[in-house]
Design a protein that fits this description.
globular, 13% strand, single chain, 8 helices, three-stranded parallel sheet
Length: 201
């Protein structure tokens, strides 16, 4: 999710409601470690409801200074949960993905509204699903039609022959926080995914 709050208050409200649903269903959060925007809001809200042990932020050293400025000098783990500092963006993404993939039933990836970074990470976990690297759900929380264009692009890519019809369902849409949780729990793995063995070195 974004390090910005967006121009509509609906995006921040969606972040809060997602945190409330995560708390209600006793689900933990691993996220990008930010303290501002939607990222900070979902972490703060869940930490306040479930306790800081329910939140794990993973942030590169380079971004830590910026976040410390935004957070008044340091990231308060009581407010934002446990923070792990890593060397670079690739390590951050791998650590977050590994934690989600190794999670319990219903674990998965959720994209709130965001910019380039959100879309890049979303596309990576979709691609990993298509390649058979993981079988976790991938859900976009579509607030005020924010992801309508992306959902339409998937349909266009299917009709143009660039995405297999069965793989269109790798990405699932949810319109409210409770639907996010349901879609993760009921997620169906596509039969069109590549059958590759990623355990080989």
């Amino acid at each position: 999710c974004g390090a910005s709050a967006g121009t509509s208050p609906a995006h921040i409200e969606a972040a809060r409601s997602l945190a409330q649903s995560l708390h209600k269903h006793n689900i933990s959060l691993v996220y990008g470690g930010g303290t501002v925007g939607l990222m900070g809001e979902v972490a703060r809200t869940l930490s306040s409801l479930s306790g800081p042990e329910a939140v794990h932020g993973v942030i590169p050293e380079t971004l830590l200074g910026l976040e410390r400025e935004n957070a008044g000098g340091h990231i308060d783990e009581k407010m934002y949960g446990r923070t792990t500092v890593v060397s670079d963006m690739h390590t951050r993404k791998n650590m977050m993905a590994k934690e989600v993939i190794e999670g319990g039933p219903g674990s998965g990836f959720v994209a709130l509204s965001g910019g380039y970074g959100t879309l890049e990470e979303l596309m990576e976990v979709i691609t990993w699903n298509q390649l058979g690297i993981h079988g976790r759900g991938v859900v976009v929380f579509n607030v005020e039609g924010y992801y309508d264009g992306l959902i339409q692009w998937v349909r266009t890519a299917v009709s143009a022959g660039f995405i297999a019809p069965g793989n269109a369902g790798i990405l699932v849409e949810a319109l409210d926080a409770e639907e996010v949780i349901r879609e993760l729990r009921d997620y169906q793995i596509s039969e069109d995914r590549l059958k590759l063995d990623w355990s080989q070195k």
